[in-house]
């Protein structure tokens, strides 16, 4: 499967007096088969890094790659296809469609791609995130934690090469948080996928194979085999 990588990534929002350098020359690679956590203070550029690496937003300069593909070389149509077929994204705000059921929300990426869900795979995913008895409910009838698990299942349903997750356990109790973290780790290690997660939580980060630390839009540290007390 494909790795993800950014090289000399710079992202500037606004201009003049209101200019913000959200990323100030970040180079980092997220290897296939590895679960990487991104940590850092609020405003350090974590969400921006994820959005640009996933092709949801463009860099001001530098490059973002998925596999061998430099995202800046793709036209809108090819970028949309890459996001649809090769990248899964778990948004902080879930981005679920309120009129669709849980099952329909989860399979949405497949429907958009004109693909038929693989029944066995769908069932496994639903059991992993513990939504078996909620499949016909709508997001408004679910707790925040359940909605978050729908968002996680949706990111994985298309079997993407790379999954980016922005605070995927932020709304979960510790038990369902553990389930989601194990899913993220297992997907990376057992299927060779690339999994990248932003988190504030040292206990969540300890599930990753490596943690990279951002501060003021720069990569300031990285730590292999993290433990919660070393990350703190
Ligand atoms: P983090 O995820 O680490 O909290 P962000 O990537 O969200 O950091 O933000 C990094 C910096 O960029 C912050 O100063 C933030 O206010 C700014 N920023 C993020 N998104 C935008 C935007 N759309 N327009 C202007 N500034 C933004
Ligand atoms: P967060 O809460 O992590 O900042 P948001 O859900 O607010 O994430 O979305 C962040 C950005 O990504 C927004 O600018 C939004 O327009 C963009 N975005 C959201 N969903 C998609 C999508 N499916 N395709 C492309 N861009 C998207």
Describe this entry's structure for a reader.
- This protein has 232 residues and is α/β, with parallel strands linked by helices.
- It has helices at 46-53, 76-86, 102-112, 119-128, 144-157, 174-191, 202-205, 228-231; strands at 4-13, 20-30, 35-39, 61-66, 69-70, 87-90, 162-166, 194-198, 210-215, 218-224.
- A hairpin with a 2-residue loop joins strand 4 and strand 5 (69-70).
- Helix 3 (102-112) runs parallel beside helix 5.
- It is globular, with a radius of gyration of 17 Å.
- The protein starts with a strand and ends with a helix.
- GO terms for molecular function: ATP binding; ATP hydrolysis activity; transmembrane transporter activity.
- Keywords: ATP-binding, Nucleotide-binding, Transport.
């Amino acid at each position: 499967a494909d790795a993800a990588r950014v090289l000399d990534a710079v992202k500037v929002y606004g201009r003049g007096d209101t200019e913000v350098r959200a990323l100030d020359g970040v180079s980092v690679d997220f290897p296939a088969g590895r679960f990487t956590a991104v940590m850092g203070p609020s405003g350090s550029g974590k969400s921006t890094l994820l959005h640009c690496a996933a092709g949801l937003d463009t860099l001001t300069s530098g490059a973002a790659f998925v596999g061998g593909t430099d995202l800046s070389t793709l036209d809108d149509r090819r970028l949309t296809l890459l996001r649809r077929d090769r990248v899964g994204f778990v948004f902080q705000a879930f981005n679920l469609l309120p009129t669709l059921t849980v099952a329909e929300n989860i399979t949405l990426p497949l429907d958009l791609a004109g693909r038929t869900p693989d029944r066995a795979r769908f069932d496994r995913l639903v059991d992993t995130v513990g939504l078996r008895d909620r499949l016909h409910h709508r997001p408004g009838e679910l707790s925040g934690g359940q909605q978050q698990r729908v968002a996680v299942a949706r990111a994985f349903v298309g079997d993407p090469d790379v999954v980016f997750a922005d605070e995927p356990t932020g709304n979960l109790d510790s038990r369902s948080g553990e389930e989601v973290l194990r899913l993220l780790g297992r997907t990376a290690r057992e299927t060779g996928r690339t999994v990248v997660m932003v988190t504030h939580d040292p206990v969540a980060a300890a599930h990753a194979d490596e943690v990279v630390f951002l501060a003021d839009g720069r990569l300031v540290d990285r730590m292999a085999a993290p433990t919660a007390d070393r990350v703190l």
